[in-house]
Write a structure and sequence with these properties.
- The complex is a heterodimer of chains A (288) and B (159).
- With 288 residues, chain A is mostly helical.
- In chain A, 64% of the residues lie in helices and 0% in strands.
- Chain A contains 15 helices and no strands.
- The termini of chain A are far apart.
- In chain B, helix 2 (66-79) packs across helix 3.
- Chain B is globular and about 45 Å long.
- Classes of the chains: A mainly alpha (288), B alpha+beta (159).
- The A-B interface holds A 102-103, 108, 157, 161, 164, 168, 170, 228, 231-239, 241-248, 251, 256-259, 261-263, 265-267, 269-270, 272-273, 276 and B 6-8, 24-28, 47-49, 53-54, 57, 60-61, 64, 93, 95-104, 106-107, 132-135, 151-153.
């Protein structure tokens, strides 16, 4: 078996994406969902339930009487923070781990993933698209391949970085050149293995090379831009840094201007502080 | 003990124990200032050049923008006894993606905004490391006033 086959096989042994989170994301992203439908979905996940109650009863919300039922808690905090809590529970999964090959500490890839997902909402809003959990999920897991590629990148980091420096290659192209597969392709294979719809797989596969996408260009471009703005903001910037190409075509396609990119960053800046505050609340034992 | 300065955030330290650090500067810029006499240091991590694109957010968080954050950084340091002509300024960040077009060169715009503000106020930059495609971390050591720069995936060196 060659290296690429080994990498692909290990990707196919990944545990499935938690179904409760996928269902909860779908419901929470739909403003027409009822509180009880959401409660019914998340109540079977102990960690999420405990976190919702703990956060609801934290000084952050300043309640006089502690809340004890999930229903009450969800009604009180609303869907927006709930989304962050549900996402926070994914942080314990592989996306939350440290990824030394890319020089990312524990939680950094996770913050990048959440930021990209939030940006996909921010940009969708600007483009007046309906909120779509499919896009949100694609943005959230677009870098999952980095988790699997980690050890191989770590072994070859010097060679990869040398190609980036001397040949002005993108980090992605250098991964492909040295390892035979890049993290975008691997992320796409993993999302296929998780039975995500074709559009998600497509958007993930082309998140650094949007102009090559044969179909679903709209979604591909949106995920590309979401990831790009998260990188510019520096969230989850690792060994690969900003060594990826920028394509004007995507901006022209959406009729966006320079100032729009800045506005997206400003909107993200506001939300990421909120997300970080909640991530901190969820891990009280780690506060130092 | 190090105090962490987040994205669109600012920190001030006084005395010799507490240092300041800010992580993962992409196109954002980190500005470290230090007065070796008053032993006052400050670190700003701003995201964008001009507050006019979103005045409301600038009011809520002035540290998001160069034009509102930089003056505040100095003002806060003065409050702790720093004096303008003693302050040493060091700067890092402002990275770019590849194939830079006008659309995505926030790093360059961030740097230009900084130069303009400091020039207008007769403040010199003592050391800087800007541009390129790297993600940077900078740390202000309050005991020595030295600023340490780290590229992601590489070792720390003095700026």
């Amino acid at each position: 078996m060659n290296l690429v086959e080994t990498i692909i096989e290990s990707a196919q042994q990944l545990p499935p994406f938690p179904a409760v989170i996928q269902r909860a994301l779908t419901l929470i992203n739909d403003p027409k969902s009822s509180v009880s439908a959401v409660v019914e979905t998340i109540q079977y996940d102990q960690a999420i339930t405990a976190n919702v109650l703990r956060i609801c009863n934290s000084p952050f919300y300043g309640l006089r009487q502690p809340v004890s039922s999930l229903q009450e808690a969800v009604m009180l905090i609303g869907f927006d923070p709930l989304l962050e809590i549900v996402l926070g529970s994914v942080a314990g999964s592989s996306l939350g781990e440290s990824i030394p090959g890319y020089d990312l500490e524990a939680g950094e890839l996770w913050k990048h993933s959440i930021s990209s997902a939030l940006l996909s909402q921010i940009i969708s809003q600007r483009l007046q698209w309906a909120q779509d959990h499919m896009i949100f999920t694609a943005a959230l897991i677009h870098d999952i391949g980095k988790v699997m590629l980690n050890t191989y990148v770590k072994d070859q980091l010097l060679t990869i970085k040398e190609l980036v420096k001397t040949k002005k290659m993108s980090f992605l192209a250098a991964e492909k050149e040295v390892l035979g597969i890049d993290h975008a392709e691997l992320s796409a294979l993993i999302s296929e293995h998780w039975n995500f719809p074709k559009e998600i797989v497509q958007a993930i596969r082309y998140h650094h090379t949007p102009l090559l996408a044969p179909t679903d260009k709209e979604v591909v471009y949106l995920i590309y831009l979401s990831n790009l703005v998260a990188m510019l903001t520096g969230i989850g910037g690792g060994a690969d840094g900003l060594s990826y190409p920028g394509y004007d075509e995507v901006m022209y396609h959406f009729k966006l201007e320079e100032k729009d990119v800045e506005k997206f960053m400003a909107q993200l800046g506001e939300q990421i502080q909120k997300v970080e505050a909640l991530i901190q609340l969820q891990k009280p034992e780690e506060n130092s | 003990m190090k105090k962490i300065v987040g994205i669109a955030d600012m920190g001030i330290a006084q005395g010799q124990n507490e240092g300041l650090i800010t992580y993962s500067l992409g196109s954002c810029i980190g500005v470290a200032i230090y007065d070796p006499v008053a032993l006052v240091g400050g670190l700003l991590h701003y995201m964008l050049p001009e507050s006019q694109i979103d005045p409301q957010k600038a009011q809520k968080n002035p540290y998001m923008f160069a034009d509102t954050g930089i003056p505040l950084l100095f003002k806060e340091a003065y409050r702790y006894g720093a004096v303008k002509n003693r302050i040493v300024v060091k700067v890092a960040g402002g990275a770019q993606i590849l194939d830079e077009s006008g659309f995505f060169n926030i790093g360059k715009r961030n740097y230009m905004a900084l130069r303009k503000i400091l020039w207008r106020n007769n403040v010199l930059i003592k050391a800087e490391d800007v541009g390129g495609q790297v993600s940077r971390t900078i740390r202000l050591d309050m005991e020595t006033g030295k600023v340490w720069l780290k590229y992601s995936g590489e070792g720390e060196r003095e700026l």
